[in-house]
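Hello forum,

I keep getting stuck at the same step: I have a sequence, I want structure tokens, and every attempt I make locally crashes halfway through. Rather than fight my setup again tonight, could one of you with a working pipeline run this one for me? It's a single chain of 280 residues.
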Amino acid sequence: MEPDAVGLRCDLTSCHEFDFLPIKCHCNKVFCRFHISPDKHTCVLPDGPSEGHAPFIKRQRCALEDCQKPSLESAISTEVGVETSPASSAPCPKCLLSFCIDHRHPDLHSCTGLQEHETDKKKDAQDILARHFSKPSSHTPVAVRRTIKPPTDPQKIAQIQKVTLMKMRHSATAGDSRDKSSTVPVNERLHIKARLEITGMPVQERVLWFRKSVVTGRALDLISANLGVPSSYQTPLCLIEKTVSDSSGCLPLQNDQLLSEQVGDTCTVILSTVPLSRSN
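Reply #2:
Ran it on my machine without issues. Output:
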């Protein structure tokens, strides 16, 4: 058998097929991939290892069921006790099983490791999506409430009051139904927030405006009517200016004085019953 430029021909007489990847058997003959198995070429087993040749080792079959070809991993070099390393890795990198040259690729032997690898990749992708794009919890934790301190800077106070007054001018209604917006100039109006705080009645609030010339007693009657206090209510009522901190310690407004002289724009006036200490 003459060596070819690339590869060799199978030593089996009935075959003699040219093979680019011939395999040398322990019997020192070269065979193609179809006849490398000892039972395919009537291999003559030596009694013992000859000098310079490895002892006979039974070749591992392809891990694919029904395939009788030797696996790539079972290739043995002509040197004693030294195994060859084929050009491509013998064990499958996915499932780590050894296959023949025809079934070495993962997609040719239905590789279970490939399926597990795809499953792991899919799971990793799902974990990334869940971590970065997960739906917000239906339960929103209660935020820690912070106590907002009132501003002390005169400029900030004036700016806040100016913005509040602008909002109240748009939403306020006339406390006296006889007054019309078209007849009372804006600079002659007093804008307040009237709040009802009488035991046994629902708390309510309205934004009203009055003429600056209105007397507090008259404003008391008008606020009572706007907040729905019945005219038959017998308990004496009064107006109390609500301060930033607390209105419980404030004295009732004087009914015989002008309302504009006792309260300013944007203030809150509470309609309540006359304190016992002041009713006598």
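The beta strands are 8-9, 18-19, 23-24, 30-31, 173-174, 189-196, 204-211, 237-242, 268-273. If your local run keeps crashing, start a new thread with the error log.
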